Amino acid sequence: MRLVTLFTAVALGLAACGSSQPITLANPTVPQAYQARTDTGPNGEPIEIPAVRAAYLNERNQRQLVAYNGPEAPGTIVVDPYARVLYHVQPGGQAMRYGVAVGRAGTGYAGTATIARKARWPSWRPTDNMIRTQPDLYAQFAGGLSGGMHNPLGSRALYLYEGGRDTYYRIHGTMDPSSIGKATSAGCIRLFNQDVIDLFDKIGNGTTVHVRSQAESVSLEGQMIETPEGYVEPAAPTQTAMAAAPAAGMPSQVSDPYAAMTVTAPAGAPVTTMSPVESAVQ
What is the 3-state secondary structure (H, E, C) of the chain? Predict the structure, then answer.
């Protein structure tokens, strides 16, 4: 348990995924949807979910109903790793949009799949290969890591299957809310715990999920620019030109959704590039 606590602390070091520079907030206070709440854990126990800090709630990260111009039918989930958003398509040309964090595993799949399994406060176990090749790191988790705020899958997980086979692509919560909106060191597609709970409650097994390729994203969303803080935003024509030869400290054009590789900790905090637990979420 001591090692789990240690790895959890390291994982929370991913709060350093972006710089500690101040950002412009869409709202200086925390909206009700992102306030602290008490949820029911896997064994019926109460689990406290902390409020999301206002600093992490920029305009693109906050759950909101937006116009939607994609071809998917209402009810479909659309994941856009390049633009770092997830859409739940609604009737009438609208969609509920959520900000997401994109890990390395989240960039390795594009296509259409189905949610075949949903889990509340899911457990996690490293694969046999991980245990065999890195026993010092993963053998202690051979019996699995129970669900809870220490678990890298967070409060909920959605498991994607294609043709009846597990894609190993996951949509899940997070133990690091500072990562949302950024390209992080590991994992698939992560949402704020409050957001993945909202999505989880609205969809069922059998829901269609389309994961866009970068080409699809650019055709529908346009080019994206990565800000100095590690977030993305639509590129204006002048920004696109500037991105071809960015000046020091200026935003750069995102060429793939795993562009933000640098991990910088806030002042006084330890710096890490990957949590042992978080790195194994595939």
Answer: CHHHHHHHHHHHHHHHHCCCCCCCCCCCCCCHHHCCEEEECCCCCEEEECCCCHHHCCCCCCCEEEECCCCCCCCCEEEECCCCEEEEEECCCEEEEEECEECHHHHCCCEEEEEEEEEECCCECCCHHHHHHCHHHHHHHCCCECCCCCCCCCCEEEEEEECCEEEEEEEECCCCHHHCCCECCCCCEECCHHHHHHHHHHCCCCCEEEECCHHHHHHHHCCEEECCCCCEEECCHHHHHHHCCCCCCCCEECCCCCCCCCCCCCCCCCCCCCCCCHHHCC
